[in-house]
Amino acid sequence: MSLTVADLTRGAMTEFQEKLRQQHEESMHRELEALLSTANKVEAEISRKDFDGFKKIFHRFLQVKGPSVDWPKINRPPEESIQPYEKIRAKGLPDNITACLNKLAVVKLNGGLGTSMGCKGPKSLISVRNENTFLDLTVQQIEHLNKTFSADVPLVLMNSFNTDEETKKILQKYKHHRVNIHTFNQSRYPRINKESLLPIASNMGMSGENAEAWYPPGHGDIYASFYNSGLLDKLIAEGKEYIFVSNIDNLGATVDLFILQHLMSQPADRRCEFIMEVTDKTRADVKGGTLIQYEDHLRLLEIAQVPKAHVDEFKSVTKFKIFNTNNLWISLPAIKRLHEKNAMDLEIIVNPKTLDGGLNVIQLETAVGAAIKSFDNALGVNVPRSRFLPVKTSSDLLLVMSNLYSLDAGSLTMSKKREFPTTPHVKLGSSFTKVQEFLARFENIPDMLELDHLTVSGDVTFGKNVSLKGTVIIIANHGDRIDIPAGAMLENKIVSGNLRILDH
C-alpha cells in the first residue's frame, strides 16, 4: 500500500498537534505550580486538590475536538428506562418511612449568586415568600420531614467560594432547628486566556486584579469536591445510602417518599444507583438537557454538545419530549467507587466569557447529570411539572409570591382554587429585572388565580388588590408610564401607551 502526500501530511499534522498539546499541558502545569507557590500552606493544600481536578479536565479538553456526540448514534431511550411517576407512586409508601429517610441526605447546589436578579450575595438568601428565603424554605421542609417521621435527614449545602462565607454566617440562625446542616465547597478553577490557554491569575489571591481570575466549575464538580471534603465518607459511615440533589432555586424539589421507596426496594443485585427526574418539555424548556440512549447507556444530552446543524431538532418538542429537572437521586457508595476508579467521564462544557476589560477567557465546566451514563441501573422518572419550579427571573418570582401557590411547612403547592394545573406564562420587561425594582412596582402581588398569560413591558406599576385574568398585555411606550389603579380587574385586556383599556 503506497502512502500518498495527503497521508504523510496528515501524519505530520497529527504529530504536530500532539506536540502542541504536550506543550500546552506542560506550560499549564508550570503555571499552576507557580500559582501554588504564592499561597500559604493550608490554602496550597486545598488548591492542589482543586488543581488536580483542573489538570484532568484540561487534559481532556485538549484531546477532544468538535461535538462530543455522533448524531446518528442517538436513540430514544427504551420505554423501561424512563418510568412514569404514576407507576412508581402506585407501589405505595415504605412500611418503615423513618428507616428509609435515615438512609438519605439532601444536597442543595448553593454555589450561585443572585446577580442575574440584581442581588448581591448568594442567591439562596433572596426572599421568595413571606420574608422566607430559598434557604429558609429548604430548612423548614427538611425539619418538617424529620419531625413528622422522627427521622434524621441532614441538609448538605454545596457552596462555592462566592457564597461560602455569607452562607455560613446565616447558618447560625438554624442552630435550634431539627436538622443537621453540613457544608462543603466546590472547587476553585482558574479561568484561562482563550488565545494562550494559560491561567490569567498572577497569584492565588482573589481580590484586585485577580477578582475575575477564578470560577466554580459547574455542578458536575460535586463528585470530586464532595469526596475531597471528607463529607462523603462521613455520611457513608453514618449509614446514609443515597443523596437527593437539586438546585436550591427549584422550589418544587422536595423529598419524594415514593421515589425514595422505589430506590430502597430494589433487589441488592439490581440496585438503582442513579435516578434523574425528568418532566415533559413545553415551549419554555427548549434549551433543557434531555435523556437519550447512546451506546447502550442512558445519557444526558445538553444543548452545548449538539452539533450546530441539529440544534433546531434538539429543541423540537416532538423528538425530545422530556428534559432534565436536575433533581437527582444518587447512591453514595457508587459515587465513592466511581470517583476512586476515576471512571466518571463527564462531557466538558466550554463556556466562553468576555471579562470587563475585554479579555476573552474560557471556563471548563461539567454538569452533575452527565454522570448518569457511569452508574449502574440508572433510571429516568417522568415526574409532574410541579417538581420543577425554578426561580431564575423576577417573572418566576411573581408566580411563587402570588396566590397561585400556597405555602405549607416550607413546600409550595399549586392552590386548590386554581381550576387547571398549568402555570401561567409570565413575561416581565427589563424594568422588573432587579428584585428591588420589581418589588417597588407592586403595592401588593395581584390575584393571578385565573391568569393564563401576562406580558408587561416598560414603566408600569400596580396598585393594591389588582386582579389579572385570562390574557393580559400591558405595554408602556418609551417615555410613557402606566399605573394600573388599585382594585382594577383586567380580564383579556391589552393596556397600551396612554392607559386606554381595550378589549382583547
UniProtKB/TrEMBL annotation:
Positions annotated to bind substrate: H219
Reactions performed catalytically: alpha-D-glucose 1-phosphate + UTP + H(+) = UDP-alpha-D-glucose + diphosphate
InterPro entries, alphabetized: Nucleotide-diphossugar_trans, UDPGP_fam, UDPGP_trans
Superkingdom in the source lineage: Eukaryota
CDD domains linked to this entry: UGPase_euk
Entry keyword set: Nucleotidyltransferase, Transferase
Protein name stated in the entry: UTP--glucose-1-phosphate uridylyltransferase
Species: Amphiprion ocellaris
